[in-house]
Write a structure and sequence with these properties.
alpha/beta, four-stranded parallel β-sheet, 6 helices, 4 strands, 9% strand
Length: 208
């Protein structure tokens, strides 16, 4: 499991605990979400994943963590097969980040996460596995003032969270941070890891 920007592994504790209760072995590493680019973080995480003895490797990632996961999967197709679930990941880049980045001092909070990440440029398209996206639609969060008039989760626009490489996606009335504590979000994760769909009645999205 991969956390988002400015976060630490403990933020994913509730979701991780629920997955462990189902029998999954869960690893939640820390990474330098601001100091390094998503691509550089992927390279640092790769040796860790090489030490995991498993035939199936699923990735569950929140926000920026999803961009790190995309770089990891595109550059290292040798990783064990599995599925990817992203939660509120700005797969097309972040309007908030692009808006704030040029502002003196304030723009520094995004650091190198813009490169091949929040800028929307250089985001991988070929990951070689099923990818399900949970997309929030409750506009509650510090980023809401920058996203007025557009559907968002308070930090990421719905349009930014969609990506042609996704094989399934579902929208949930939940905020960007709230999805980390939502039982329904966990149910979606569980269904997708098990079947490649978010429920037995939801058909996968055809990749463009």
């Amino acid at each position: 499991m991969l956390h988002g920007i400015w976060m630490r592994p403990w933020v994913l504790g509730r979701l991780a605990g629920r997955l462990r209760a189902l029998g999954y072995v869960v690893i939640v590493p820390a990474y330098a979400s601001v100091r390094l680019t998503p691509a550089a973080n992927a390279e640092r995480l790769y040796p860790l994943l090489q030490t995991v003895q498993t035939d199936t490797l699923h990735l569950v990632a929140h926000s920026l963590g999803g961009l790190v996961a995309l770089h990891l999967l595109e550059k290292h197709p040798d990783l064990p097969p599995g599925r990817l679930v992203t939660l509120g990941t700005p797969a097309q880049g972040s309007k908030i980040a692009r808006t704030i980045k040029p502002i003196p001092v304030l723009g520094k909070v995004f650091g190198n996460s813009m490169l091949e990440g929040l800028s929307g440029n250089g985001v991988p398209h070929r990951i070689g596995r099923e990818w399900g996206a949970v997309i929030g639609t409750l506009p509650f969060g510090l980023g809401f003032p920058f996203l007025r008039g557009e559907t968002s989760d308070g930090a990421v626009l719905v349009s930014e969270a969609r990506h042609p490489a996704q094989t399934a996606r579902i929208e949930q009335r939940v905020s960007h941070t709230g999805m980390l504590f939502s039982p329904l979000t966990f149910t979606y994760i569980q269904h997708f890891l098990q079947s490649g769909q978010f429920s037995s009645s939801i058909a996968p999205v055809n990749a463009d």
